[in-house]
Design brief:
10 helices; mainly alpha
Length: 242
C-alpha cells in the first residue's frame, strides 16, 4: 500500500472519532449556554451585576482611543434614589407596555412589521427586558444565533426576576453618553444633581436620548423634539394588568 493510500485510510478511520468529539463539545457548549443564564440571573434578585458586555466593549474602545478612565464609572443606586419621573419617562420612551408583556411586545412587533411593509423607516421593537439581556450578556452583531439567544435570555429574565427589579437593573446599567452608565451618573453628568432630584423635564430628556446616547445629548435638538411626546405620555401611569 502506498504512503498516500495509508494516510487516506488513517484519515477515514479518524473521522468518526473527530465527529464524536465535535458532537460532545457542541452538546457541552449548548448545555452551558442553557444552564449558565439561570445561575447568573437568579442572584440578580439580591445583587447588582458587576459589569455588562456593553461596558466591557466601551472599555476596549476607550482604551484604544486613549480616553481616561478606560473603564466607565457606574454608581449603582437603590430604587428610592431614582426619581419616579425617570422610571416613568423611560417606560414612556422605551417600553410603555412593559407591565403587560412577558418580555416580548407582540403588538409593537406587529406595528414595526406594518411600518416596514408600508416602506417607512424600521423602528426597533425591543422591550426593556430584551435590552437588559443584550446589555448584560450579548456580543455585537446581527445574526439568527444572537437573536435566538437574546429571546432565550429574555425569557429567563422574566421568569427569574419581577418586573420592578428588571427595571431597576436597566436604569442602573443604561448608557447615557460616552463613559456614562446608570441613572445616577447620567443625572450628575448632564444636570449636576443626583438621580432622585431629576425633574419631569430632565427625566424626559434623559429618556429621549436612550435610542442613541452617544450621538444625542439631553440638551440637544433631538431631545428637545422627543421630550414633549414623552412628557405627554407621562401624564398617565404605565398600563398594568388588572
Amino acid at each position: 500500500m502506498s504512503a498516500a493510500a495509508s494516510r487516506g485510510t488513517r484519515l477515514r478511520a479518524a473521522i468518526p472519532g473527530l465527529l464524536r468529539r465535535l458532537r460532545r463539545w457542541a452538546l457541552v457548549t449548548l448545555g452551558v449556554a442553557v444552564v449558565a443564564p439561570w445561575l447568573l440571573i437568579l442572584p440578580l434578585n439580591f445583587v447588582e451585576p458587576a459589569t455588562t458586555m456593553v461596558m466591557l466593549r466601551r472599555s476596549v474602545q476607550r482604551l484604544r482611543a486613549g480616553k481616561s478612565p478606560a473603564y466607565p464609572r457606574r454608581d449603582v443606586v437603590r430604587r428610592d434614589e431614582i426619581s419616579p419621573y425617570l422610571r416613568r419617562a423611560v417606560l414612556a420612551s422605551e417600553d410603555d407596555r412593559f407591565y403587560l408583556h412577558f418580555g416580548f411586545d407582540l403588538e409593537e412587533i406587529e406595528n414595526a412589521i406594518e411600518r416596514a411593509r408600508a416602506g417607512r423607516r424600521l423602528r426597533g421593537a425591543s422591550t426593556i427586558t430584551q435590552q437588559v439581556a443584550k446589555n448584560l450578556f450579548l456580543w455585537e452583531g446581527r445574526s439568527f444565533v444572537r437573536k435566538g439567544y437574546e429571546a432565550y435570555l429574555t425569557l429567563v429574565l422574566e421568569v427569574c426576576l419581577p418586573k420592578e427589579r428588571i427595571l431597576d437593573i436597566y436604569l442602573n446599567l443604561a448608557e447615557w453618553g460616552d463613559g456614562v452608565f446608570g441613572a445616577e451618573m447620567a443625572a450628575r453628568r448632564h444636570f449636576g444633581k443626583p438621580a432622585k432630584s431629576l425633574t419631569r423635564d430632565e427625566a424626559a430628556r434623559l429618556a429621549a436620548v436612550l435610542p442613541s446616547p452617544l450621538r444625542w445629548p439631553p440638551s440637544g435638538a433631538v431631545a428637545s423634539r422627543r421630550a414633549p411626546i414623552i412628557l405627554e405620555k407621562m401624564r398617565y401611569a404605565a398600563p398594568k394588568k388588572l
